[in-house]
Amino acid sequence: MDTKVAIVTGGNKGIGFEIVKGLCLKYDGVVYLTARNAERGLNAIKKLQELGFKPLFHLLDVTDERSIEEFAAYISKNHSGIDVLVNNAGVLDFDKCVSSYEDSKKLIDTNFMSLLSISKILYPLLKNNSRVINLSSDWGLLSNIRKQVWLDTLVKDDLTVDEILQFVNDFLESAKNGKTSFLTFAGHYGDYKVSKVAMSALTFVQQRQFTEQGKDISVNCVHPGFVMTDMTKGMGDFTPERGASAPLYLALDAPQTLKGTFLWHDCHQVNWDD
């Protein structure tokens, strides 16, 4: 009998760490904690082992296609595929409400462009009945965007990945043009908002694609709440453990029929485009 496999990106701290812990507690299979830094990843593994859990570690830099390919090769060699994939890795400089083009591009490369690489390299390993969970944000709701052309485009039933890329690149062009253009597009923290809106839109497009292909794979995005982590400088309404509850629901307990949704931190579905 094949061993089931769950993978969490950026699992060495914060919400990702708590998702790994929750999976170790309840998941009937192997749990991989991945991180781009080996020392931090292995330290996280040690903490979990001290709690009696047995996750496995693998190095994974989601912004590096070679790193993703090496991980995919490892999974292919050692397992029959992937059953749960939690795309948790992400960055935000909470001190910069308006970022430069260079900083915005780095953030979007990590938070969104990496998902396209993961889709290309890891998604072929997804088993039927597998689950993909994308960690979005309340800033991933469409209402965070101020440019009407994208408010109209991103809600299309036949939206494409190329159009989402055009949306992201249009924002990056705005970031090149200075603070006024940056704020006009999406307001403060616009680069983070754009990255999460793009993630949300990609979730719905990829779910539609899997369904059209006849694959019983669920892809959902989730707002974990305003969680007290290093990313938020310790500010927030919830602990990381509480923030992990909705992602864990999607990974473990949600019906497989729940597909292509935006889930709130309390596990109710919301309309992302209201």
How would you describe this structure to a colleague?
The protein is of the alpha/beta class and 274 residues long. It has 10 helices and 8 strands. It has an 8-stranded mixed β-sheet with strand order 3-2-1-4-5-6-7-8, with helices on both faces. α2 links the parallel β2 and β3. It is globular, with a radius of gyration of 18 Å. The model has no long low-confidence stretch (mean pLDDT 94).
List descriptors.
10 helices, about 270 residues, alpha/beta
Q: What is this structure, in a nutshell?
A:
This protein has 274 residues and is of the alpha/beta class. It contains ten helices and eight strands.
Q: Could you give the count of β-strands? A: 8
- What level of helicity do the residues show? 40-55%
For the biggest β-sheet, the strand order reads 3-2-1-4-5-6-7-8
Which spans have pLDDT < 50 for at least 5 consecutive residues?
none
Shape from CA axes?
globular
Rg measurement, Å:
18 Å
| Largest sheet descriptor | 8 strands, mixed
> Structural class of the secondary structure composition?
alpha/beta
Report the end-to-end length measured between terminal Cα atoms: 45 Å
Overall mean confidence score, pLDDT = 94
Counted by DSSP, the helix tally is 10
What string, H for helix and E for strand, traces the elements in order?
Answer: EHEHEHEHEHHHHEHHEE
Strand portion: 5-15%
